[in-house]
Amino acid sequence: MMWVVAVWVVLMCVSGCGRSRVGQREDEAEKVNVIRVWSHQGQEAENRAMREIAEAFNAAHAQRGVRVELTFFPDFQYAEKLAIAAAARDLPDAFDLDGPMVARWVEAGLLAELGGFWTEEELDDFLPTIVEQGTVDGRLYALGAFDSAVVLYYDRVLLAKAGVEVSADVDAKGWTWDEFVAACGKLKTAGIEPVAMHMDESADEWFTYAFSPVVWSGGGALIAKDGAEVRGVLASGENVWSLRAWQTVFAKGYAATDPVDPNPFGNGKVAMDWSGHWMARGHLAAKGGRLGAMRLPRVGEKAVAPCGSWAWGVSARAKNTELAALWVKWVTGVETGVVPIVRANGAVPARRTAFTFFPEYAEPPYRLFREQLETAARARPRTPYYATLTGRFAAALRDIARGAEVEARLRQAEAEVQAVVERREEGRR
Amino acid sequence: MTRWEQERGRSAGWFLTPALALLAVFVVWPLVRAGVWSFTNADLLSPERARGVGVENYTGLWEDGRFRRAFLNTWMFALLVVPAQTAGAFFLALWVNRPEREWQWLRVVFFVPVVVAMPVLAVLWTLLYQPAQGGEMGPVNAALGVFGVPPQAWLRDPALALPAIALMSVWQGVGLQMMVFLAGLQGVSKELLDAAKIDGAGAWQRVWHVVVPAMRNTIIFVVTVTTILAFRIFVQPYLMTRGGPGNSTLSLIQSVYETTFVSQDLGRACAAAMAFLVLVGGVAWVQRRVLKEERE
């Protein structure tokens, strides 16, 4: 019966897998201008806020006959879902994507340039990190409504108990690595577990995001500036040195390599927490005045803070780029997007004027989030190979924390990333 | 061929059409697509830009250190799991093959891990294997400690991680094969066993000379299915170690998955997937040739 199979295969080839459906959708869209929008699913409060933002948009644009149609996809499969949609030529008009992935989407020619839709003045109101994360080769492709921060939270009472002194200006400056290790040592001697590094985090991105500042503060980088060379960069002498310093924290038992408890700081089991803005509300509620927060410890001279978050882009294949950009403007607008979404998810507002809506930013730890984003933050590398880079680097960090030889392990990661880079660079030539 | 037979042949074609159509759409067509892509440099995000690159994706596979490692790991895993799981299931089946209630209950116990979702079991075994740290020693190390064995970092040691995952996988899968063997055991003639007993054969001899030959086809089936399942290893190492430490538990499926969705190198991923298909198909084919089934 092979002929039946053969006929079907031929039929499928000819019909091109339901391409007619796309045409139908265009017919419908002619009556009302529907902007198809996809977003990752966050916490329930965040999703509710997103839906309200979309409803407000629809109400405000009803007279023009413009409407958004918002679809959520679970966070853990969202990146795959987007990639498959791109492959099937079924991308929505606008969608959010993780900041470091922007360069890859630009390389594939799938993001429309957005620079023209904002005035210079409007762009100045965004945090520089948010503009930096969405800019590839000097052109703007994505903007987000919120940013992020990682700090070293500490419990004043527990530190005092171990005789660790925290000087008044340390919050803004952060410790040197030696000061950090010395503080850990005192805590350990006093019988207090020193610090949580969240090595149980299942997402690879946590490792690159939270610990790249260690590499950067030591003068190193993850990938060369052109974004297409890791040889001699990822396993550079600086990085080996910085990550050896990082490794000592685990080797000496100051931080758990395989923690079981996701929030040991919140329930008083450890004295310090290397963690993000998303823990601020919980930590404040648990500790009140005992809570302190300082910049991440630095290996070299300069403290560097991580940053970046979800960003909105417009598909290069959008039916109407201008309408899709209208949505992005709305969702990154101060009162239309930033304030409601930040109220819901507790992230750091991406726009300077939005801070006036959040009085907590006058106080620590929030004040520190803004301060370090404006003065010390660095976006993760903008390279089309970011996904591979972060995956291999995260795997190396996991192994290094558990005792792998730093230089050899970094070299392995370097070779693996370089192999992927070279294959693709060759293919393109 | 008579006219009636011809008629029947023609209508059979129509009855087969729905099934064949579904197969064509959901199996043959994707396979053809993947096969075509495997000879191009297709990018997952923009496959329409693909250019033909000949067999380069295939020849390059072996030069790719991660793929090579995944290939060896997967073989190693199959070599550890297939004999252990087949033999284990066989003896468990012999053991629980009794009509009393208590033994039926035991069958259920051995079958439970087959029914529970793999991610749950992966988390459970990660905790069981927990190395001694921060006073949270896992039960495996605690149990071995009774016999004076020092605690091991089971999933963190490149030499131990794959065997540890293999052990967990055997435990998880053994119940299913046990059920198949149990069914097979019901077909072993009671008269034959009694005759062997009267002739003075011991328990061991009865198993080896009567039960095993009588269950030949069941054993072949179990070995083949277990092999195919073993080669498809993915969830356990992906959740328990992410393929680490180093690449010591990286599986072929994880390697294909990452090539598709992380490096988004669709052409290479399709080549790896086709190679995987040929590998598993080839192994199953060789097994069928070597271990011929008996058919009356």
Can you put this structure into words, describing what you see?
- The complex is a heterodimer of chains A (429) and B (296).
- Chain A has 429 residues and is α/β, with parallel strands linked by helices.
- Chain A has 18 helices and 13 strands.
- Chain A starts with a helix and ends with a helix.
- About 3% of the residues of chain A have low confidence.
- With 296 residues, chain B is mainly alpha-helical.
- Chain B has a single domain, classed as MetI-like fold (Orthogonal Bundle).
- Chain B is 71% helix and 0% strand.
- The model of chain B has no long low-confidence stretch (mean pLDDT 88).
- Chains A and B meet through helix 1, helix 4, helix 17 and helix 18 of A and helix 1 of B.
Note the main attributes of this structure:
heterodimer; A: 429 residues; alpha/beta; D-Maltodextrin-Binding Protein, domain 2; 4-stranded mixed beta sheet; 48% helix; B: MetI-like fold; 13 helices
CATH superfamily of the largest domain in chain A: Periplasmic binding protein-like II
Radius of gyration of chain A: 24 Å
Percent helix of chain A, as a range, is 40-55%
Which blocks of ≥5 consecutive residues of chain A have pLDDT under 50? 12-24
What number is the mean pLDDT of chain B?
88
Strand order of the largest sheet of chain A: 2-1-3-12-6
Note the gap between the termini of chain B. 26 Å
The total strand number of chain A stands at 13
The quaternary organization reads as heterodimer
Helix content range of chain B: over 70%
What sequence of helices (H) and strands (E) makes up the elements of chain B? HHHHHHHHHHHHH
Please give the largest β-sheet of chain A: 5 strands, mixed
How large, in whole angstroms, is the Cα Rg of chain B? 24 Å
